[in-house]
Amino acid sequence: MDSPFGFVAELTYRCPLACAYCSNPVNLSDYTDELNTAQWRRVLAEAHELGVLQCHLSGGEPLLRRDLADLVASANDLGLYTNLVTSAIGLSRPRAEQLRAAGLDHVQISIQAHEAALSDQIAGTPSFQRKIEAARIVKELGWPLTLNVVLHRRNIDRIAEVVRCAELLGADRLELANTQYYGWAWRNRAALLPNRAQLERAEEVVRATRARLAGRMDVLYVLPDYYSQYPKPCMGGWGKRQLIVTPNGDVLPCLAAHSLGLPRASVHEESLASIWAGSPVFQRFRGNGWMPDLCRNCDRRDIDFGGCRCQAFQLTGDASRADPVCHLSPDHHIVTDAVRAANETTCAGEALLDLRPHRG
Ligand code: SF4
Ligand code: FES
């Protein structure tokens, strides 16, 4: 077993936005307790001891933690590379300067579209203008900037405009991430899932953009796995490369694993090293032993690891089945039915705003 490379510190699930594809748990009221500063410092030190190199400070909105700069400074003292994953609401110049002084290495800002009206509508709150101002501050202070845009039926036709927006801001990296259908996104799937024609147009724009901006901006395109033949190698394999600590101190192998009903592992009860090495939640889907025969006997078992456990659970109620995205899966019809519905509807996605996560 290798050491984890990345560590996601979900500092809080509180958030000023209310995006319809939010990956935070739908039962947010179960997560009102948050680790305090001293507890997070201990967790950061344990992550460093475990071999972690990258620390993603995430949420919810991590800027809502008043101790964020202290935590950045602690991670920086340990030699961890720190990435702030933020909506940028609250990233004023004084706050940004404080984080710069604390040693923050990188900033990733989410925008929901290329312009205010649509972005604010998807975010559920006026926020676009503040995001743009924050992105300018990030560049002025000399940080590398990643812009992250979650793609869905409502905004995927505007990728070219999103790219122009990223260029104007001087973004170093643009993440165009098709929605992953867990949690809130799964509940809103009918309004979010694009049709095939939209995806084909989007992929053409991405190809042309990559060629045009090669060497100037990294353009990452996260594939829409419902339209793929094979599933994604989620998290690079269960318990292989990453670990996540939730605001209340639970430790998970992936952002959505809280939904699987696995035994809990908590930093209140065990060290990160002990949880990583032996806790049932990390052991449950490590290696090939848990796989159904279909995957265990498949040439791709060490490439996609049988796909995403959370997606298998979301779609079949059983996390130990092959990911239904796989065209070989006996459950693949669940995905093809959803894709067929997405290609038959004339819905443009307006309904997605009717069902929002509450803000914690
Ligand atoms: Fe991956 Fe399993 Fe499908 Fe093979 S059968 S491609 S291992 S999900
Ligand atoms: Fe949990 Fe894919 S999101 S394994």
TrEMBL record:
EC number: 1.21.98.4
Entry keyword set: 4Fe-4S, Iron, Iron-sulfur, Metal-binding, Oxidoreductase, PQQ biosynthesis, S-adenosyl-L-methionine
Cofactor descriptive note: Binds 1 [4Fe-4S] cluster. The cluster is coordinated with 3 cysteines and an exchangeable S-adenosyl-L-methionine.
Keyword Iron listed: yes
GO molecular function, one term: 4 iron, 4 sulfur cluster binding
Pathway(s) this gene product operates in, as recorded in its UniProt entry: Cofactor biosynthesis; pyrroloquinoline quinone biosynthesis
GO biological process: pyrroloquinoline quinone biosynthetic process
Cofactor(s) of this protein: [4Fe-4S] cluster
InterPro entries attached to this UniProt entry: 4Fe4S-binding_SPASM_dom (IPR023885), Aldolase_TIM (IPR013785), Elp3/MiaA/NifB-like_rSAM (IPR006638), PQQ_synth_PqqE_bac (IPR011843), PqqE-like (IPR017200), Radical_SAM_PqqE_MftC-like (IPR050377), rSAM (IPR007197), rSAM_sf (IPR058240)
Residues annotated as transmembrane: none
Record has 4Fe-4S as a keyword: yes
Domain Radical SAM core stretches: 1-216
Matching SUPFAM superfamilies: Radical SAM enzymes
Domain of life: Bacteria
Role noted for this protein: Catalyzes the cross-linking of a glutamate residue and a tyrosine residue in the PqqA protein as part of the biosynthesis of pyrroloquinoline quinone (PQQ).
NCBIfam families: PQQ_syn_pqqE, rSAM_more_4Fe4S
Subunit record text: Interacts with PqqD. The interaction is necessary for activity of PqqE.
The name this protein goes by in its record: PqqA peptide cyclase
Taxonomic lineage: Bacteria, Bacillati, Actinomycetota, Actinomycetes, Pseudonocardiales
